[in-house]
Specification:
The chain is of the alpha/beta class. The protein has a 5-stranded parallel beta sheet with strand order 2-1-3-4-5, with helices on both faces. Strands 7-6-8-9-10 form a 5-stranded parallel beta sheet, with helices on both faces. Strands 12-13-11-16-17 form a 5-stranded mixed beta sheet, sandwiched between helices. Helix 11 links the parallel strand 6 and strand 7. The longest helix is centred in the N-terminal third of the chain and has 32 residues. The protein is flat, with a radius of gyration of 27 Å. About 35% of the residues are buried.
Length: about 550
C-alpha cells in the first residue's frame, strides 16, 4: 500500500473508530456501569491503537492505547481520568487531520523552489538524523536529501525525544555514542521503543565495528548498523528496502461469481486481510474488468449460467496479457476428477465451498506472492530492480498510444553514467554495481509514481515522463543530474563523486517509440561529446 493509500485508509479508520469512541463515551458518562458501552469503547480504542502504531502514527496510537488500558485495568473505571484521556485522543486526531489538510498547500508553496515537488515525487518521507558531531550529521543529511528524503538533524538526544513527541519520522539514523555515555544512543532508543511499542524504525551509526555494540543495537530492534565513514548507497538501499516493505501495494483480487451474496462474503474476508477486491456477477464482463482493474488473481466460480468457469479460464488463457494471471476456482464441486480437469484447463488451484476465511486468505496470499515474484524476475533488472530493456520498450509503446489518444505530451530521457569503465577499472565492479544501484534509488525516489524507469543495459538508464513537455522534462532531468553529482561514494578511504549525461526527446514531436529513443540517444551522445555532466534536448525534426 502506498503512503497516500495508507493515509486515506487511516483517515477512514479514524472516522469510524472515533465515532464509536465518542458514542460509547457519552453512553458511559450517562450510565456509569454500562458494560456494553465499555466493551465498544475498549474495542474501538484497541483497534485504533493497533492500526495507528503499526502505520507509524505514534501519538494517536499511544493516546488510544492509554484509553484501552484505563478501562481494562482491575477495579471500577475512573471516569474523570478516562475523560482526560478521551479528550487527549481527540486533540491528537484533530491535529493529525489539520496537518493532512495543509499538506497540499505545503507542496504548492514549495513547488517553485523544487521541480521534484512539481513532479509529486514518490515519497516525502522524513528521516531523523542524530549525531553529536554537527558537521557530520549535516553532511550525512545532505547526502540523504539527494535521494528525495526530507531530513531533520539533532546533536542532542533530548531534542530528538522532543521531536518524536511532535511528529513521527519514516526512520531514524542515530549514532550509538553521545557525551552521556558510550552506548547512550542505544540506551535512548531502548527507552523510546518501550514508549512507542517497539514501532520505531531505527538504523544505528558507529565509529567502530563492535560485536557487543551490534548485539545491543539488535536488542533494541535496530534495522541495521553502519560503520563510519558511511557509504550512502548502502544506507539508501536499506531505507528503500524498509519502505518497500511498508508501502507494498495491496493485493488485488477479481471475484467472478453469479451469486452476489457469496461474492460479497468472500470479498469481505479478503478486505479484512487488506486486499483490494472487485466483484462481477456477469462472466461476459470479465475481460473488461481484467483490463480496467488489473488484478493479481482471479477468484472464479466453476458453475455460472452463461458459461462455466472452465470455459472462461480457457478464454482468458488465450490472451497473451493474461496468460500468467493466477486463476483460483472456488466451487462447491467435490468430485476430484472434475476439480483436476478444471485445473488442467487453465486454473492454478481449486478451493471447495464452504471455505474457512483463514484458508481462503492463505491460498490467495501464497498465489499472489508467487505471481508477483515471478513477474518481478521476468520484467525487472536483477541488480537495480528497474524495468529491463524489453519491458520498458513495451511500456513505452503503450504510453505513446495513450498519449496519442489523450493529446498529452510525453518526454523520454536517456541517461548514461560518465566514465563508468574508468570507475570499474579503478575501484572494481562491486563499486560500479553500488553506483548503478545508487542512481536507480535516486531516480525511483525523486520521480513520480507515474514516471517509468528502466535499465537499458550496462550503465545506461531510460525514463519516460507522461504528460510532461520539453522544458519541464529538461528541468527535472537537470535537477536529477545535479543531485546525483552531489552524492559521495567511498572505496578504501577514497571519496569520489560520479556524474551522468542525458538526452531528452518528446512526443508529439516524435511519433514512434523508435524515433523517440533514437532522438534521445543522439542528444545524450551529444551531451557526452560536449564535455559530459549535462542535459541536452533533441534538435528539431529534420
Amino acid at each position: 500500500m502506498t503512503r497516500p493509500e495508507i493515509q486515506t485508509a487511516f483517515l477512514k479508520q479514524i472516522h469510524e473508530d472515533g465515532r464509536q469512541i465518542e458514542t460509547a463515551w457519552k453512553e458511559l458518562q450517562a450510565h456509569h456501569e454500562d458494560a456494553h458501552a465499555s466493551a465498544v469503547l475498549t474495542l474501538a480504542a484497541h483497534r485504533l491503537a493497533g492500526v495507528a502504531l503499526r502505520l507509524g502514527y505514534y501519538r494517536i496510537g499511544s493516546a488510544a492505547r492509554l484509553i484501552e488500558n484505563q478501562i481494562i485495568q482491575p477495579g471500577a473505571v475512573d471516569l474523570s481520568e478516562l475523560e482526560k484521556l478521551v479528550d487527549a485522543l481527540f486533540v491528537e486526531i484533530k491535529v493529525h487531520k489539520e496537518d493532512e489538510l495543509l499538506e497540499p498547500e505545503r507542496r504548492s508553496a514549495n513547488s517553485s523552489k523544487n521541480v521534484a515537488s512539481i513532479q509529486e515525487n514518490r515519497s516525502n518521507s522524513l528521516i531523523y538524523l542524530a549525531d553529536v558531531e554537527a558537521a557530520q550529521v549535516e553532511a550525512l543529511a545532505l547526502q540523504v536529501q539527494q535521494f528525495g528524503y526530507s531530513t531533520q538533524t539533532f546533536t542532542r538526544l533530548d531534542d530528538l525525544e522532543t521531536a518524536l513527541q511532535q511528529r513521527s519520522p519514516t526512520a531514524i539514523l542515530i549514532d550509538i555514542s553521545f557525551p552521556s555515555g558510550e552506548l547512550s544512543g542505544i540506551e535512548t532508543v531502548r527507552s523510546l521503543q518501550k514508549e512507542f511499542n517497539n514501532q520505531l524504525p531505527v538504523f544505528f551509526l558507529a565509529d567502530h565495528d563492535d560485536v557487543s555494540a551490534r548485539l545491543q543495537a539488535i536488542r533494541t530492534d535496530g534495522k541495521n548498523y553502519f560503520v563510519k565513514p558511511v557509504e550512502i548507497s548502502a544506507v539508501i538501499d536499506d531505507l528503500d528496502k524498509y519502505l518497500v516493505r511498508e508501502e507494498t501495494e495491496s493485493f488485488r483480487v477479481l471475484i467472478v461469481d453469479d451469486s452476489e451474496v457469496q461474492a460479497k462474503i468472500n470479498a469481505m474476508h479478503l478486505n479484512r486481510a487488506r486486499m483490494v477486491t472487485r466483484i462481477t456477477t456477469n462472466p461476459m464482463d470479465v475481460l473488461h474488468a481484467l483490463d480496467e482493474f488489473i488484478p493479481d488473481l482471479l477468484l472464479l466460480d466453476l458453475y455460472m449460467p452463461e458459461c462455466t468457469g472452465l470455459e472462461l479460464a480457457q478464454v482468458i488463457r488465450q490472451m497473451k496479457t493474461h496468460v500468467s494471471l493466477p486463476i483460483v476456482y472456488l466451487s462447491s464441486e467435490t468430485d476430484r476428477e472434475k476439480q483436476l480437469a478444471a485445473v488442467d484447463s487453465g486454473g492454478d488451484d481449486f478451493l471447495t465451498k464452504p471455505i474457512k476465511p483463514d484458508h481462503l486468505i492463505s491460498a490467495v496470499t501464497s498465489r499472489i506472492t508467487r505471481y508477483r515474484q515471478l513477474r518481478a524476475l521476468m520484467l525487472h533488472d536483477s541488480l537495480t530492480g528497474l524495468l529491463n530493456h524489453t519491458s520498458f520498450r513495451e511500456r513505452l509503446g503503450q504510453e505513446i498510444a495513450r498519449s496519442a489518444r489523450t493529446g498529452q505530451p510525453l518526454a523520454l530521457a536517456m541517461i548514461d553514467i560518465d566514465k563508468f569503465k574508468q570507475i570499474n577499472d579503478t575501484y572494481g565492479h562491486a563499486v560500479g554495481d553500488r553506483i548503478l544501484k545508487a542512481l536507480s534509488h535516486l531516480l525511483t525516489r525523486r520521480l513520480r509514481q507515474s514516471d517509468v524507469i528502466g535499465r537499458y543495459g550496462g550503465e545506461e538508464f531510460v525514463v519516460f515522463l507522461p504528460n510532461t513537455n520539453e522544458s519541464t522534462a529538461y528541468q527535472i532531468m537537470n535537477e536529477l543530474r545535479e543531485a546525483f553529482s552531489l552524492v559521495h561514494h567511498i572505496c578504501n578511504g577514497d571519496e569520489f563523486s560520479v556524474t551522468f549525461s542525458c538526452g531528452v526527446a518528446t512526443f508529439p514531436e516524435r511519433q514512434t517509440s523508435s524515433a523517440l529513443s533514437e532522438a534521445a540517444d543522439q542528444a545524450m551522445y551529444n551531451a557526452k561529446s560536449q564535455g559530459r555532466n549535462r542535459v541536452l534536448l533533441a534538435g528539431p525534426m529534420p
